[in-house]
User: Fold Pigment epithelium-derived factor isoform X1 from Dipodomys ordii.
Amino acid sequence: MRALVLLLWAGTLLGQVNCQNVASSSEGSPVPDSTGEPVEEEDPFFKIPVNKLAAAISNFGYDLYRQRSSASPTANVLLSPLSMATALSALSLGAEQRTESIIHRALYYDLISNPDIHSTYKELLATVTAPQKNFKSASRVVFERKLRVKSSFVAALEKSYGTRPRIMTGNPRIDLQEINNWVQAQMKGKVARSTREMPSDISILLLGVAYFKGQWVTKFDSRKTSLQDFHLDEDRTVRVPMMSDPKAILRYGLDSDLNCKIAQLPLTGSMSIIFFLPVRATQNLTMIEESLTSEFIHDIDRELKTIQAVLTVPKLKLSYEGEVSKSLQEMKLQSLFETPDFSKITGKPVKLTQMEHRLGFEWNEDGAGTTPTSPLQVTRLTFPLDYHLNQPFIFVLRDTDTGALLFIGKILDPRGT
Assistant:
């Protein structure tokens, strides 16, 4: 049992709420199983197939994030795990049982009793990429030149994921240009073109791209944006543009176990960003990172309390382009790069050679309005509360409708990746 202690005074009342790392029902008490041991009932939210699938691939995303963060302890991390999970899920359509089960375990599909995961995935993608979400995500499977791909795989890929595989020409310049053109078309020009050379030994290339520009439910006043100190650590600071709101309405909690202050800000399109801000600038983020699961984030979403606070948030405009192949290999997917069985794709032995990730992410003062669009029950405080994102923090961009993890970032320096 993890405790999320909410230090909110209402008169003389100190409130305390609990979060758990596993999904549990908020209604009633655990019921005993046949052995007499209490068993936690599944949260009703996760009984909806699309939400359960979103939780599974989000847990893959948290695993991937932890791997990337541990490999880059002194650098920013920016990921859109959904785009990579989509590419892997699509590739699993062409895998025989042994290889398919390896992919499905990494995506936590083995915990889902859903006979048609791929149809549910189609529904999930349609939900999270709806126009009002301001989130774009696309994935692609690219094969080596002259490969004969089975029509049954192409049909299944198009049916559930709305995409067709690409066969490379073998000309690195033309292949790079074609991929760049596809990325530009999918992301409406918001993600930069790659200048990296295409490897000559590609067998299977997976490509995951995503872009998000947040629009707050309550916009920031640009006249209050100013250069302020961001504390990289106890000794070093940099000056960055910080957006301010002296009367921000946000949802808040203090996690005493993780020693961090948690805040959630709503975005338009049923989206929200949850921030994890350590109490000290020098605090190691690992303990926070290890706690991140779909279920924990869902519990936080239920338990945070709405308050008014003095808020400062750095303006962000980040991008990322790079390989995540090594990260996948560290996540028990090594066999996809060695001896997989993709005989549902082609009769020729093929293997995953590379996975590329390209991203664009930004937020500024833009918002829908100057006041919350709906009346909120604000917990009254007897002391002023400040929430200043002026030191290293972690953020999670989440789709409220499904619980899907869309972006996750570790911001050690908001000036860029």
Observations:
- The first strand starts at residue 2 and ends at 4.
- Residues 8-29 have pLDDT under 50 and may be disordered.
- The chain has two domains: 49-55+81-214+320-362, 216-316+369-411.
